[in-house]
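ok trying again, last paste got cut off:
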Amino acid sequence: MAHETTHSTGHPANGHEPAHHSISATTCLLVFAALVIGTVATVWTASMDLGAFNTPVALAIAIGKATLIILYFMHVLYSKWLTRTVVIGSFFFLIVLFGLTFSDYLTREKTREIPALYSSDPLLKQQ
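nice, full thing came through this time. structure:
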């Protein structure tokens, strides 16, 4: 069995990084506390009537909590550039898909006559 030498940085000489980065207990507790605060904020804002801002506020809180989970518990914060690029690219395409979906939905006409126009049912045409 070959003995593996290490550089002065403590990494193996074969160029491979250690398998996992350890997160300190303090960091884990701080992230956990932030997630609990985010959950409390979600429940609190759900009980309020914010009008048109209900969905944006809920999405902002959810995005914040998801970001903490991805960065710390999925170790993306300590990953190489390729992993970070894939995660950022995935979110970019998710935003594009949401944008295309909402642009289609929000530009449709909201009329009751549309089903009657395309139906062969005489009862719908009478309405």
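cool. The first helix runs from residue 25 to 46. The CA atoms of residues 36 and 75 lie 19 Å apart.
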